Amino acid sequence: MNEVDAPRLAVRGLAKHFTLHLRGGARLQVLDDTSLDVHAGECVALVGASGRGKSTLMKCLFGSYGADAGALRFESSGGLVDIAAASPQRMIELRRRDIAYVSQFLRAVPRVPALDVVAQRLVDAQPLPASDDPDDASHDHRMNLARDAARALLARLNLPRALWDLPPATFSGGEQQRVNIARGFVQPARLLLLDEPTASLDAANRRVVVELIHEAKAHGAAVVGIFHDEEVRDAVADRCVELGRTPETP
Ligand SMILES: Nc1ncnc2c1ncn2[C@@H]1O[C@H](COP(=O)(O)OP(=O)(O)OP(=O)(O)O)[C@@H](O)[C@H]1O
Ligand SMILES: [Mg+2]
C-alpha cells in the first residue's frame, strides 16, 4: 500500500471488556475483534443499538479507556503511533495537537468563561514559544488571537454574546454542547471524534455543525462520528460501520 492510500486511522482487532464490580464481578465484553479504517478527509459513522460500544470505541481512540487487545494505528503529525500502546505523555501530546473529541457532555473547568474554554484549546495546540512564561506578552497576544477565533465560532454557532464571558456550568444542554463543539473545531485536527454532537441542537445549529464537519473533512481530518440523527448522518458520513452484537439481556 502506498502512502497516499494508507489510512489515517487503522483499528485492528480491538477488544474491550468491563468488569462489573457491583454485579459480583460479571464480565461485560463490549468490543470483540473490532476493525475499521478511516482515511484523511473521510467520515465514518459508528452505528448499532444502544450499548454496543460506540462511545467505548471513541474513548479508546481518545485514550480514556485502555484496550484489552488490538491496535489503534494513527498517522499523527509526528508519525505513526499505536494509541493502544501510547504512553500517557504521548497521549497528552496527541490530544493537544492531533485528536479532538466532542463528547456529548461538556466537562469544563469551573470559573473559566466559555470564550476561554474554546480559546485555550487553540493556544494549547500551538508549539510553545522560546519563553514558556505564561505571564509574557506573547502569551497574551496568542490568547487574544485565539479569542478572536473563538468569538467567530461561537457567533457562527449562535451562542448568545451575553454568555461568552460566563462559565458554561449553568448553561442549558444545547448551549453547553455548542461550547463543546466550538472547542472541538477551533483547532484543525487530524482525527476528529464526535459523539452525538447534534443531540441537543435545533435545526439551524445542526446545519452549522454539518457545515463544520464538511469543512474539517475538506481540511483533511479523519472523522469518526456517532450520529443518532439520520439526516445529519446522511449529510456527513461517507460510510457506516456497525458495531458489536446484541448485548446479553440480564
Ligand atoms: N466505564 C464503564 N464501566 C462499566 N461498563 C461500562 C463502562 N462504559 C461503558 N460500559 C458499558 O459498556 C456498554 C457499551 O457502552 P457504550 O457507552 O459504549 O454504548 P453506546 O453504543 O455508545 O450506546 P448509546 O447508543 O446508548 O450511547 C454498555 O453496556 C455500558 O453499560
Ligand atoms: Mg454512546
Account of the protein in words:
This protein is an alpha/beta fold and 250 residues long. The chain has a single domain, classed as P-loop containing nucleotide triphosphate hydrolases (Rossmann fold, 3-Layer(aba) Sandwich), CATH 3.40.50.300. It is built from seven helices and nine strands. The radius of gyration is 19 Å and the shape is globular. The relative contact order is 0.18. Adenosine-5'-triphosphate binds next to strand 2 and helix 1.
TL;DR of this structure?
By secondary structure, this protein is α/β, with parallel strands linked by helices.
CATH topology term: Rossmann fold
In N-to-C order, the SSE pattern is: EEEHEEHEHHHEHEHE
Q: How large a portion of the residues is in β-strands, by DSSP E?
A: 15-25%
Shape annotation: globular
Give the CA-CA distance, first to last residue: 45 Å
CATH class: Alpha Beta
The count of strands amounts to 9
Write the layout of secondary structure elements.
Blueprint: E1 9-20, E2 26-38, E3 43-47, H1 54-61, E4 69-76, E5 79-82, H2 88-97, E6 99-102, H3 114-125, H4 137-156, H5 173-185, E7 191-195, H6 203-218, E8 222-226, H7 230-236, E9 239-242
Parallel strand pairs: 3-8, 3-9, 6-7, 7-8
Antiparallel strand pairs: 1-2, 1-4, 4-5
Bound molecules: adenosine-5'-triphosphate and magnesium ion.
List its traits.
250 residues; alpha/beta; Rossmann fold; 5-stranded parallel sheet; 7 helices; 9 strands; globular; binds adenosine-5'-triphosphate; binds magnesium ion
